[in-house]
Structure prediction request, 532 residues.
Amino acid sequence: MRESSPSPRSPLAPGPELELPTNRLADAEEKRSVRRAMAVGAWVWPLFFLCDLYLTYVVYPGTSIARCLVFRLVAEAGIMIVFLMSREATITSRQLKLANALICTLCSVLISIMAVDFGGLASPYIHGLSLVILIEALAVPAPWRDSLWFAAPSALSFPVVALIERQMHPALAAQMADPQMIAVFGSHYAILLSAAIIAAVSGQIGHNARVQLRKARRLGRYRLEARIGEGGMNEVWLAWDDSLKRNVALKILRAAADASPGVLARFEREALATSRLSSPNTVRVFDFGASDDGFSYIAMEYLAGADLQQLIRERGPMEPARAVALVIQACRSLAEAHGAGIIHRDIKPANLFATRTGDDYDVLKVLDFGIARLVAGAVDATATQSVRGTPAYMAPECWSGADADARSDVYALGATLYALLVGRPPFAGSDPALLVRAHLLDAPAAPSEARGEPLLAALDALVLRCLAKSPEDRFATARAMETALTVVAKELTPWTNDDARTFWTERAREKMDRPSAVPSSNVAFRDPGGGE
Prediction:
């Protein structure tokens, strides 16, 4: 029996578009950097109010602490606004960088105004500008020219503010006429300029490191961008195909697994089986092979969205019309696979992926042909005495060691439809012996009974027919099941493309609002070989 393992996940795609092209990954990285800089600033900025208190009441009595407090609150609010902007999927990296530059300039101007109050040309607050420049350079690595351009407003803020305010501050005007004070200011300003140079150098070093890391992660013609899934013996990476100029999901067999002939045969069989299929509801395989250094890989279409198990976990039972519409698409994929002599053998919600194609939402893709049985024109490399599949969705004949056929996939698809309608499979539990007994002997409750609300009688009957103990009592083919589901769908309130668009838009918004969300790379592709 194949062990179930947690499905590798990554956050879902930003906004209703459900896409994050490879050429935007650098933008996503920049957004994370800005968010990191704002997070640091949100802590550091208010802490310096302690310095304001000390200087106001000890060093420069008579200055206004109220003005310092207002300045701190205004800048803190700006920092939090930019931080929240960085969590918005709809904000572009260009807009975020502009907001970041504006808030840093605002902080620098406020520091400069406070420096005029606290000592003028000799104020220790001039070094606060150095902190702004250094924190930004370390948190947001960039080419040295960009770092210098960014540092310029901060470095120039104090001289500009001092020139403007000297008309209102006689003491400041007197300092600016005193060569000794100008020399003191020059020493402070030299440190500030040194900080700008250090920021440019460190920013360039950090930028170079990122570029080198991206260049180093290659597998043949594929540039590895980000690991987006992991499970079992495989890893899945978002990769850029340099030859065809497109995103792919690159499934890579780990080196340790590659040493096992059985694992390698299963990996190759998945590539071979899936590459034979052309249904729009089957995940497409573009390429498969091995690199010069021995890593086996499968290049598949890159999907953004979520598998149905994840949707059940998040939202519970689905609307009946939506569940039926999704399973109809799965039937189409399996009908082609069965016609090609391929039995999937591991149909379950985690292997059905809802994505988007153009303006069509809730497009379903069948994943994971890793344990498929090739019953025509090929030797079945899984033809052993072991039982393979996911226990909660396995047909009774699979438990007894009989050969799986199309009706076994129909059973698993019926169990999947049951889970979509009810929120759990027809038989659940952690005890394998009880699960085997249930599949072999127990009659499942009707979906409407398990759901706790009435469903269409024809839908109940259809699901229970799929879950019949004897293969002869089920639909003989996935095509026959699709035909029956299509009839049932006509009696349900339709689940429209607008309904699906609204669902995905709201889901993306909810994920962006959660503190644990990772908005900058909100893309998911579940490893087709990772199990549930």
